[in-house]
User: Which sequence fits this backbone?
């Protein structure tokens, strides 16, 4: 006779839970916000990027486009400069009035050099190995070898721009004092002012053309370009250019100068030989800073209205506009690659200069995790980041970020559907639902829904997705097979929460400003009833044993209880200040309600709906999660940065676990028995290992009470147990009761109604806490 082996898990009272790790999103090399400064070190093939806040520079390997270092500098990095002679990197730190000097070979800080007030720009003197830094009232010269200030040049006005003339070893500095705009000519060897003369009003930018030894100055307020002969250091011509010429670039191959004209949406071309206008190129965008690439003789405009416009300089023709919808602030060239900073998304986009295609995205800042969803089929965690417009994918075994998935401008909620192995992401600001194929971790479909989608629910019986749209006051109902919209239903004022009842195939929708819960038929999607529950219903939970729905009403400090058979209000329970989050414990038939402002959790008996206990938790509890593996409830406390752990049997607090800053969401990984917290201000997901005393038994004797086989199962499960006669309850990984069958000692339970996943079986009448986990394989 063939022996049948099975595993039975015995849970003792030896509870243990601890912080296993923090997973930083996207990684630990973060800290650059609103990036606006780039430089390239040709000696080491590395790119450096800095931005506002925090005081960090990130280092990127030019071969792999991977971040390889993080360097502490001053605050508000407004410009970076590479000194190829001394192999040093200079960081101009506007808010801390200093320049950080970095060894370009080791990426170690050599010194922080205090300078005058508000340094904002850098340029390099290649003949004398000097670095010039422009401050509020002066330009300082720094020796490239000793890193000492060796010259100070003061002006009556404030420097606004400068350019270096390497042919004559002169520095040109544009200054302004009220309406007086001047150019000062500085000797590169002596660091003294050689000449000073007035220019036109509203001078904005200056560039040096080494081909004709001329300096070009833009005056957007005058619609003019002034041209200076650097041999005589005098203005030799004015050119009228329509449309506020602001940004300039020099094509040294064809001896041409380009001006970006903001209001006319054109780029003008100046012949450097004759200093006359050759042509004007319409680009259908408001052009921004210009970057010339001598390797392919192309010009790039970082458009103020979004995207990069590419122009072929040999024929002055428009080639393409790429990256539309993104606002770029600065760029650099490395061989046939271009690196663009995107300050609003805190990233760098890497562009192929040959194909004009965006090749890679490098994330620079920490994320703000908001919502979590666990995929138990692939053992992956998904986490939204509304500020980076991404969904991060985390390996459930190795606790590492696998990749990120670009979605819309504000991903808010997630819903994983195991039947189709798809993830649905409600994007709040684009009014779209992004459908992600979890096998490929890529966006499969983008479904337009209503205005401001904020809540999701899945109807497993009819394979439909429900999306609550807060501002359009309706529900979008989606076919989960074809990912197409079936219908949109006007529902009421401010839909805020959704809940699916699998036993009766009903959907419940909380309307915050109507003080109602609306009940829909899951088959026809018609409204069955509207139930007045109390002021500002915010969260819903289903009691599967009693067939009741609980509504947390945060403006009346009450919990409304609904009978799902009649869809009528049974009673209201007075609870504490601002009930905000709910959880259900099917093992002990208890409901948990967390109160946002009174910092406690009320425990309610699911049969009598009476309050059993009130447990103090941390500061501002915002999320609850029940772990059926250990019969514990986890409460995320946003302001105290910790989790409170409650024993589901004794109703007492058994632990407090410190996590990263501002935990706002929770998820369970039943495969590794891990709890995840999304830490909004910690740029991370904390991983909690939830352990319990486990004894593993392998046997074939019926005296072990329960024998369940095969495991994994497909269409049916065979069960034998002692004593004969009893009811078997089946729960999913979220603790929801999905099936309850009476079996007389031995029988077969159909598994056809169960989707692929992990389930928990419990035999009624046993005092010893015991569960069997079944992994069903389709």
Assistant:
């Amino acid at each position: 006779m063939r022996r049948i082996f099975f595993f039975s898990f015995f849970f003792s009272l030896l509870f243990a839970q601890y912080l296993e790790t923090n997973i930083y999103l996207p990684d630990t090399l973060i800290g650059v916000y609103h990036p606006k400064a780039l430089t390239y070190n040709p000696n080491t093939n590395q790119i450096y990027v800095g931005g506002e806040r925090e005081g960090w520079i990130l280092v990127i390997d030019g071969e792999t486009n991977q971040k390889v270092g993080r360097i502490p500098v001053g605050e508000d990095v407004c410009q970076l400069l590479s000194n190829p002679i001394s192999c040093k990197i200079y960081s101009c730190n506007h808010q801390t009035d200093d320049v950080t000097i970095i060894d370009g070979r080791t990426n170690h800080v050599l010194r922080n050099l205090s300078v005058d007030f508000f340094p904002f720009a850098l340029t390099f003197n290649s003949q004398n190995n000097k670095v010039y830094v422009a401050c509020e009232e002066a330009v300082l010269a720094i020796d490239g070898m000793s890193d000492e200030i060796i010259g100070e040049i003061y002006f009556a006005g404030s420097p606004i721009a400068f350019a270096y003339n390497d042919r004559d070893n002169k520095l040109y500095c544009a200054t302004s004092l009220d309406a007086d705009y001047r150019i000062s000519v500085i000797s590169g060897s002596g660091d003294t002012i050689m000449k000073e003369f007035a220019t036109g009003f509203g001078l904005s930018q200056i560039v040096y053309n080494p081909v004709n030894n001329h300096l070009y100055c833009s005056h957007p307020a005058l619609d003019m370009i002034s041209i200076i002969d650097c041999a005589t250091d005098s203005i030799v011509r004015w050119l009228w250019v329509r449309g506020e010429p602001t940004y300039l670039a020099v094509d040294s191959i064809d001896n041409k100068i380009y001006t970006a004209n903001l209001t006319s949406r054109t780029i003008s071309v100046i012949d450097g030989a004759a200093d006359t206008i050759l042509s004007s190129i319409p680009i259908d965008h408001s052009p921004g800073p210009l970057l010339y690439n001598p390797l392919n003789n192309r010009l790039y405009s970082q458009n103020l209205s979004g995207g990069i416009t590419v122009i072929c300089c040999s024929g002055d023709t428009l080639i393409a506009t790429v990256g539309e919808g993104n606002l770029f602030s600065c760029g650099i060239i490395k061989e046939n690659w271009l690196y663009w900073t995107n300050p609003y998304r805190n990233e760098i986009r890497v562009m192929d200069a040959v194909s004009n295609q965006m090749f890679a995205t490098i994330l620079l800042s920490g994320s703000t995790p908001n919502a979590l969803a666990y995929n138990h089929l692939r053992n992956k965690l998904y986490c939204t980041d509304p500020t980076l417009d991404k969904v991060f994918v985390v390996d459930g075994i190795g606790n590492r970020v696998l990749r990120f998935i670009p979605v819309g401008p504000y991903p808010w909620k997630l819903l994983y559907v195991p039947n189709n192995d798809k993830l649905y992401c409600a994007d709040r600001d684009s009014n779209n639902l992004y459908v992600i194929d979890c096998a490929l971790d890529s966006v499969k479909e983008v479904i337009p829904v209503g205005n401001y989608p904020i809540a999701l629910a899945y109807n497993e019986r009819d394979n439909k997705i429900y999306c609550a749209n807060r501002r359009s006051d309706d529900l979008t109902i989606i076919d989960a097979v074809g990912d197409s919209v079936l219908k949109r239903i006007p529902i009421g004022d401010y839909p805020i929460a959704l809940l699916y009842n699998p036993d009766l195939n009903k959907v419940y929708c909380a309307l915050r400003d109507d003080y109602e819960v609306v009940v829909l038929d899951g088959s026809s999607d018609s409204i069955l009833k509207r139930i007045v529950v109390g002021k500002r219903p915010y969260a819903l939970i289903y009691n599967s044993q009693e067939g009741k729905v609980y509504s947390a009403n945060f403006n009346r400090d009450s919990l409304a209880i609904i009978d799902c058979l009649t869809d009528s209000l049974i009673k209201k329970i007075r609870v504490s200040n601002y009930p905000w989050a709910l959880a259900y414990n099917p093992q002990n038939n208890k409901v948990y309600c967390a109160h946002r402002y009174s910092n406690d959790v009320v425990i309610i008996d699911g049969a009598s709906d009476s309050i059993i206990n009130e447990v103090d938790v941390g500061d501002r509890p915002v999320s609850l999660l029940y772990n059926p593996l250990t019969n514990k409830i986890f409460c995320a406390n946003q302001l105290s940065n910790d989790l409170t752990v409650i024993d589901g049997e004794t109703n007492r607090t058994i632990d407090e676990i410190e996590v990263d800053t501002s935990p706002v969401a929770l998820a369970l990984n039943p495969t590794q028995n891990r709890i995840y917290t999304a830490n909004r201000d910690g740029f991370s997901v904390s991983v909690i290992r939830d352990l319990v005393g486990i004894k593993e038994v392998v046997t074939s004797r019926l005296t072990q009470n329960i024998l369940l086989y095969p495991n994994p199962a497909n269409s049916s499960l065979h069960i034998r147990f002692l004593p004969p006669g009893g009811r078997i309850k089946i729960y999913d990984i979220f603790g929801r009761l999905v099936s309850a069958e009476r079996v007389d000692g031995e029988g077969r339970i159909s598994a056809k109604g169960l989707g692929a996943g992990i389930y928990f079986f419990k035999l009624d009448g046993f005092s010893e806490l015991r569960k069997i986990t079944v992994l069903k394989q389709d």
